[in-house]
């Protein structure tokens, strides 16, 4: 009875209530979107690397190296010589080393040249290994393993051929079409930049960059693994990842890499670099969150104002309720319930709007910004945020409810 009365009362004033719903929905949509994207970006960045102790590249900024080599964002960096990679990969303190060669792409998706260590040791999230959904890891020179997002967006299957191009843009004037690659494997989704990456052998990157395309196509002897490794030793790579036997040697090896006399190198600790990134982003995050909160509070005050203004037209309704025995506290709770219902319906509409927006812009976020955003927004933070919204609506609804209470006692 109480709930039905509140709903009927709102429906009787559907014109002004619809405007309140729109304003409230937009404000909640902005607040939920900012919080969800902020949380997902942090989760995505934090889960991309697991178990990597040091990222090594040519002398540049810590963040630039990490963003480009691991997250496929930012500006290209200078290369590291293959000799330097081999020296540190063979160090007794190093358990494993993964070379990374970037700079090519396929229809806007980055191509990564690496070796088997990538599939054996690279991990994400809570030290989860890469797992193939279909096929196998590359064996022959021109094999390619696709990330799940690449296979899904471009509709590739095992056995399909593709051509990679020089550069990272979607349109390239230099394509290595004389040496097409064959899809031999597709990885399971990881929620990291791995999903939007094509993985090939380091030797393949070296071969196509040295115009061996025709020879690769015609020379069957190049299926000989020993000959491939001899002919196509990389001159340089973009960066490499290091996993150590003992964490105690991290800072010692890092210092040696930074002071390496043969060429200028930089050793980045992923956790430290990400902390620096969050500090930089902190001001922007807080500013966006503060603006979102202000928008929501202004919408709540707007609803409060509409409910307050409606009391003048509802004096007869209030007196009627009092005449049939409703106490003043009943009138107070009725107004509070109306504010609660407006906010609750607005939250439901905002959730639908956020979900729809993520569906529509999912491809853009992945291909243009490299962001993999989960479409479900029911995280611990979002649920707490929605709870605070409902509580705030009750606080702002207190003014019209108190005014109605006084009118009912007068």
What do you see in this structure?
- The chain has 410 residues and is of the alpha+beta class.
- It folds into 2 domains: 2-45 and 281-409, no CATH class; 54-268, no CATH class.
- The protein contains 16 helices and 15 strands.
- It has helices spanning 2-12, 14-48, 62-69, 82-89, 117-121, 148-154, 202-209, 213-218, 225-231, 250-258, 270-313, 315-323, 328-360, 362-369, 380-396, 398-409, and strands at residues 54-58, 80-81, 94-106, 109-114, 123-124, 128-129, 132-135, 143-146, 161-162, 165-166, 181-187, 198-201, 236-237, 239-244, 265-268.
- The strands form 3 sheets. Strands 1, 3, 4, 7, 8, 9, 10, 11, 12, 14 and 15 form an 11-stranded mixed beta sheet that branches. A two-stranded antiparallel ribbon has the order 2-13.
- Strand 5 (123-124) and strand 6 form a beta hairpin.
- Helix 2 crosses helix 13 and helix 11 runs parallel beside helix 16 (398-409).
């Amino acid at each position: 009875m109480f709930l039905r009365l509140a709903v009927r009362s709102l429906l009787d004033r559907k014109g002004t209530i619809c405007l309140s719903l729109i304003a409230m929905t937009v404000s909640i949509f902005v607040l939920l979107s900012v919080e969800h994207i902020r949380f997902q970006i942090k989760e995505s960045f934090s889960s991309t690397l697991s178990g990597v102790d040091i990222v090594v590249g040519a002398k540049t900024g810590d963040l630039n190296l990490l963003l480009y080599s691991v997250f496929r964002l930012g500006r290209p960096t200078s290369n590291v010589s293959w000799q330097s990679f081999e020296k540190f990969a063979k160090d007794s303190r190093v358990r494993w080393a993964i070379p990374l060669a970037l700079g090519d792409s396929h229809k806007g998706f980055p191509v990564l040249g690496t070796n088997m260590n990538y599939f054996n040791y690279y991990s994400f999230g809570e030290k989860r290994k890469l797992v193939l959904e279909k096929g196998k890891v590359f064996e022959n020179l021109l094999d390619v393993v696709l990330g799940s997002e690449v296979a899904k967006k471009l509709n590739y299957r095992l056995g399909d051929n593709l051509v990679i191009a020089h550069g990272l843009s979607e349109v390239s004037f230099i394509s290595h079409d004389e040496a097409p690659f064959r899809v031999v494997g597709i990885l399971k989704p990881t929620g990291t930049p791995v999903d939007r990456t094509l993985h090939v052998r380091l030797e393949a990157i070296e071969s196509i960059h040295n115009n061996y395309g025709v020879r690769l196509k015609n020379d069957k002897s190049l299926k000989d693994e020993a000959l491939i490794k001899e002919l196509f030793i990389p001159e340089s790579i973009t960066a490499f990842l290091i996993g150590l036997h003992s964490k105690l040697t991290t800072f010692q090896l890092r210092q040696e890499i930074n002071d390496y006399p043969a060429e200028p190198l930089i050793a980045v600790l992923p956790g430290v670099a990400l902390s620096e990134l969050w500090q930089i982003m902190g001001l922007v995050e807080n500013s966006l969150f503060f603006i979102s909160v202000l928008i929501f509070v202004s919408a709540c005050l707007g609803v409060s104002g509409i409910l307050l203004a409606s009391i003048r037209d509802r004096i007869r309704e209030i007196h009627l309720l009092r005449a049939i025995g409703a106490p003043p506290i009943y009138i107070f709770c009725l107004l509070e319930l109306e504010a609660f219902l407006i906010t609750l319906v607005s939250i439901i509409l905002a959730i639908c709007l956020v979900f729809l927006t993520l569906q529509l812009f999912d491809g853009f976020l992945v291909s243009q910004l490299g962001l993999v955003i989960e479409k479900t927004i029911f995280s611990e933070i979002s649920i707490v945020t929605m709870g605070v919204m409902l509580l705030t609506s009750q606080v702002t609804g207190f003014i019209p409810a108190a005014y109605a209470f006084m009118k009912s006692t007068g």
